[in-house]
Specification:
Layout: E1 20-24, H1 30-39, E2 43-48, H2 52-61, H3 70-76, E3 79-82, H4 89-98, E4 107-110, H5 121-125, E5 129-135, H6 144-148, E6 153-157, H7 163-172, E7 176-179, H8 185-212, H9 218-236, H10 244-247, H11 250-263, H12 268-284, H13 290-302
Parallel strand pairs: 1-2, 1-3, 3-4, 4-5, 6-7
Antiparallel strand pairs: 5-6
Helix pairs in contact: 11-13, 12-13
Length: about 300
């Protein structure tokens, strides 16, 4: 990357240790990261937001920081956080570059999991220094998230000459940098979506089903079980698997499907998909005995939408 800048502008090597920080997109992530950088001594100076919720969030987490249009954020800040949805990011970057809002030597950071540094190419051609810093964390958009960043892994992608700068920013926010190659960003993000987003869906569905079954406090029942399952899975991977699929209890699985078809038909497809995936992994890792797998897989393959689960 060409580190030459126009008169009056500094290179990263000459830049003061503390930076002025701007946020474009006051969603759940941007204000929290800016507040974390403020704790490290950086100075938030501008934020942009449109919705009432984003404006309230900015006021709560970044009190006193002026709300201005995106181009003005870039005009005021040395380090700019672009914290907008993945699909919005390319158009935003292109628009900022086309209108001349990007300044040479400006650190431009996006927090998209899917995209690497290449999405910032239009701004890079205008002289910006591109960094992709994605926190592997779910955000509430409140001050509690600042504490949650302690020890949080960040997926980091940047030009090699900016790698140390990117990792230093993550460390200042309390995170742990994890280098992700540009080409691996979509796969990296898919893995996080499976582990986090799908987990929320599974837990919410499990609580609904427990409520239907008459359990008065589904969350209280699930808490210890899921906590132990998560801890075991993180420690041991597939070896932590338990339950009827791993045991090859085809009759139990058939009974599950029959009850779901009666009481929660919307849950059948997800149950079958996860049970098939679980069976495949259990068989591959030697947890499911081959002689039991055949009956189990027959149950899972025969419970299509056109078959009455009560006949299983």
């Amino acid at each position: 990357m060409n580190a030459q800048h126009t008169s009056g502008q500094t290179s990263p090597q000459d830049r003061p240790a503390r930076l002025t920080v701007g946020v474009v997109g006051a969603g759940r992530v941007g204000p929290v990261l800016a507040a974390s950088l403020a704790l490290a001594g950086h100075r938030p100076v501008a934020v942009s937001g449109v919705s009432d919720a984003s404006l309230r969030r900015a006021a709560d987490i970044l009190p006193g920081v002026p709300v201005v249009p995106p181009a003005e954020v870039l005009a005021r800040a040395e380090l700019v956080l672009l914290t907008v949805p993945d699909d919005v990011l390319p158009g935003l970057v292109a628009g900022l570059a086309e209108t001349g809002a990007v300044r040479p030597g400006q650190l431009l950071v996006h927090t998209s999991g899917r995209h690497g540094a290449a999405v910032l190419d239009p701004a890079t051609r205008a002289g910006a220094l591109p960094l992709a810093l994605h926190p592997a964390m779910t955000f509430t958009g409140t001050a509690v998230d600042i504490q949650r960043l302690a020890g949080c892994s960040f997926g980091v992608t940047a030009p090699e000459e900016l790698r140390l700068a990117a990792e230093a920013l993550v460390i200042e926010m309390g995170g742990e940098p994890e280098w992700i190659d540009e080409a691996a960003r979509p796969l990296y993000h898919a893995a996080l979506a499976i582990g986090s987003n799908h987990l929320v869906t599974l837990i919410a569905q499990a609580m609904e089903l427990l409520g239907t079954a008459g359990v008065a406090h589904p969350a209280r029942m699930l808490g210890p079980l899921l906590g132990a399952a998560l801890d075991n899975a993180l420690r041991s991977g597939d070896a932590a698997l338990t339950g009827p699929v791993a045991r090859g209890d085809a009759g139990t699985v058939a009974a599950h499907v029959a009850q779901l078809r009666t009481h929660a038909p919307q849950a059948v497809a997800g149950y079958l998909a996860m049970a098939r995936t679980t069976a495949d992994r259990a068989l591959t890792h030697g947890l499911l005995k081959p002689e039991l797998a055949e009956d189990l897989l027959d149950v899972l393959s025969n419970t299509t939408d056109g078959v009455d689960g009560g006949d299983l």
